[in-house]
Amino acid sequence: MNVQNVSILGATGSIGDNTLDVIARNADRFRVIALTARRNVDKLADQCARFDARFAVIADPGLAGRLQAALADRKARAEVLTGVDGLEEAAGMADTDIVMAAIVGAAGLRPTFRAAQCGKKILLANKESLVIAGEVFTAEARRAGARVLPVDSEHNAIFQSLPPAFADGLEAVGVERVILTASGGPFLDLPRSALSGVTPEQACKHPNWAMGRKISVDSATLMNKGLEVIEARWLFNARPEQIEVLIHPQSIVHSMVTYRDGSILAQLGTPDMRTPIAHALGWPERIEAGVDRLNLAQMSELSFHEPDLERFPCLGLAFAAMRRGDSAPVTLNAANEIAVERFLGGRLRFDRIPHLVGEVLDRVSVTALGGLDDVLEQDSLARRVTEEQAVKLQ
Ligand code: NAD
Ligand code: MG
Questions:
Q1: Could you report the per-residue pLDDT of 94-153, keeping only the tens digit for each?
Q2: Which residue in 270, 279, 286, 350 has its CB near the most CB atoms, within 10 A?
């Protein structure tokens, strides 16, 4: 069997953990080359020791010495790299076949883009990269021959439900629409008036999935689904009107594709990220993921309904930003990242998140994006405007 070399950007996070779990179950197929983290020195050193990684990358350069010592304590041989340069180096290494892009937020863009430039097989969890740089990123991946495989469970389900030739246009393969399912998050049935008082702990307690804190808050506001709509637009070369969202509280049907002849194809499974991760890691083969098998006979109900855009305005804001195009999704994402950070830090009410994002979208003008630098510049600008607006909301 051909052994494939894997580097994980964001190894210490929830997706990183699950990826290493799948790799450990398939140790004869995969070898770990580089693992990266922002600040979690001890966990990164543990992972490097356990998987005998060749490189340990810490994004915060001030922690290089501590990482060196932690690796020495564990007799791990990994060489230390630091900063965004270190992340980019890890993403582009000649020895790496597969890059798992699992950094959270726009911070993942530069290293993920480097993986595209270097023609890697990219397992894309970092949806924010595609939301803000969709056109630039997909063009670069195409030019360099990088294969982008979706890890986000909905997009992975759609990928599995599409015929291989979908990249030439959905109509050409008889597809009418893609339907993203959404659990609805922890506040699905909460009345609007109660949304003002919810705490970060409540927002991070997702009914079906255990995830990092940022995406958990996004799931609670439905911004996560909004980002996923934009992600789908780029991954599947879909027009805005070809993308739909349905609330499906059980998170069993991970998404669907509807066809011209009336067929609907879907992918089902227990809500466990190791399935899409294993699918993308092994693709085009199928590998063991360690997940519980779905027992449909024990499911009492699979239900679906339309999302409530009144209570969850973030989804509508994301649809509007997608239709507007150019830099609008960059502004949406930057404002949301700041808003979520403030909410998690106790400095913004939950129901003010959509309010703040909407204010910023109204204030920052939309411009065309020529390349990566334009994206990063718009991102910084939108972050500055968001901080200014957030102070007024306090
Ligand atoms: P997480 O917060 O658990 O982990 C994030 C990882 O990124 C950590 O390793 C952290 O050290 C690293 N990181 C954070 N900021 C960084 C920075 N500025 N520079 C370098 N590294 C940085 O997040 P997660 O839940 O694993 O999510 C990761 C990505 O995957 C997100 O884009 C999320 O939307 C996407 N995703 C996650 C899930 C899930 O089940 N967790 C599902 C679908 C998609
Ligand atoms: Mg998802």
A1: 999 999 999 999 999 999 999 999 999 999 999 999 999 999 999 999 999 999 999 999
A2: 279
- Say if CB 58 and CB 86 are below 8 A apart: yes
pTM: 0.98
The CATH number fitting domain 4-150, selected from 3.40.50.300, 3.90.550.60, 3.40.50.720, 3.90.79.10 = 3.40.50.720
CA of 365 relative to ligand 1 center, distance in Å:
29
With the C-alpha atoms ordered 267, 270, 275, 276, is the resulting torsion angle positive or negative?
positive
Domain map of the chain by residue range? 4-150
Cis peptide before 284 (omega within 30 of 0): yes
Tell which residue, 11, 99, 333, has the closest CA to residue 113: 99
3-state secondary structure 87-146: HHHHHHCCCCCEEEECCCCHHHHHHHHHHHHCCCEEEECCHHHHHHHHHHHHHHHHHHCC
pLDDT in tens, 211-250: 999 999 999 999 999 999 999 999 999 999 999 999 999 9
Cβ–Cβ under 8 Å, residues 289 and 22: yes
DSSP state of 162: S
Rounded CA separation 176/242 (Å): 7
Ligand closest to CA 20: 1
* Strand duo 264-268 + 253-259: pairing: antiparallel
Q: With the CA atoms of 201, 252, 153 and 312 taken in that order, what torsion angle do they form, in degrees rounded to the nearest 10?
A: -50
- Quote the ligand 1 centre to 145 CA distance (angstroms): 25
